[in-house]
Amino acid sequence: MTAMHGLLRCLGPRFGGRKPVLWGARQRGFSLLEALVAMSIASIALASLYRTVGQSSKGVVDVESRIEAALVARSVLAGSTFAEDAERQPSGAAGEWHWHVQMQAQQIPLREEDGRPVPGAPLRAAKVTVEVTRGKDGPTVMTWTTWKPYRSAL
Fold this sequence. Notes:
- With 154 residues, this protein is of the alpha+beta class.
- It has one domain.
- It has three helices and four strands, in the order H-H-H-E-E-E-E.
- The chain has a four-stranded antiparallel sheet with strand order 1-2-3-4.
- A hairpin with a 2-residue loop joins strand 1 and strand 2.
- It is elongated, with a radius of gyration of 38 Å.
C-alpha cells in the first residue's frame, strides 16, 4: 500500500463516510449534469428537425398551389385561339380558383429575319394576361401572359 492510499483511508470518515474517489478509478453511469446536458442537446436537435419538417411541408403546399393555378391559367388561355375569343369571357371560376383576363390591343410591326420591315400593315394582336387567385378576393397566386392575334382586320 502506498502512502497516498493510507492518507485517503485516514481521510475517509471526513467525507461523510463515503469512500473517496482515486485518480484513475473508473466511475459507472452518468452524473446529473451530464444527463441534463445530453437532454438539452437532444431537445435542440429535435426542435430543429421539427422546424425543418414543418417548413418542408409548407413548401410542398405552396408548390402544389402554384401548379394548380398554372393549370387553370393555361386552360383559360388554351380555350381561346384568337383575342376575340378571350374577350368573350373576361373572368370566371374553376372550383376554388378564380381568374381574370386583362387584354391590351397592340400593333406589332412585322420584320424579316435580317431585321428589315415587311411591307404591309402591322399585325394586330393583344397582350393577354391571366391572373389566378384562390378565392374570389384572395391574393394572386399565378400571373400568365401571352400574345393572341386578332381574327379580324382593322
